[in-house]
Design goal:
By secondary structure, this protein is of the alpha/beta class. 30% of the residues lie in helices and 34% in strands. It has a six-stranded mixed beta sheet with strand order 2-1-3-6-5-4. The protein is globular and about 40 Å long. It starts with a strand and ends with a strand.
Length: 110
């Protein structure tokens, strides 16, 4: 699954959740936006925020709500739970289970 923050010189950045059926990993990809624009776009979408230039904090419940309606697999909910559980085992899930820590990647050209 990929959370993309994309925009251009003349448009306000937007957030989209794509590849929702691929739950083998979670990426936060930033296009041609500043860190401040990306942070604001994530906050405006209710999906999270940037912790810093390298790490995003994504709201687990909001991300699921955004992704699940797009899912096509009948076992999506089970696989989602597995992805979140794996993130917890890897230390990428907040203690309260509400936030996922995700590395920021470049999506220039996205």
């Amino acid at each position: 699954m990929i959370v993309e923050v994309v925009g251009g010189a003349d448009e306000r950045p937007g957030v989209q959740v794509v590849d929702v059926d691929d739950l083998t990993g979670l990426q936060l990809a930033l296009g041609a936006v500043t860190d401040e624009e990306a942070d604001q776009a994530l906050r405006d979408a209710g999906l999270g925020r940037l912790q810093d230039a390298d790490t995003g904090l994504l709201d687990v419940a909001a991300l699921r709500a955004a992704a699940e309606p797009q899912a096509t697999g009948g076992d999506w909910a089970r696989r989602w739970d597995g992805m979140v559980r794996q993130a917890g085992q890897e230390g990428r899930l907040a203690d309260d289970g509400a936030t996922l820590h995700v590395a920021v990647q470049s999506a220039a050209g996205a």
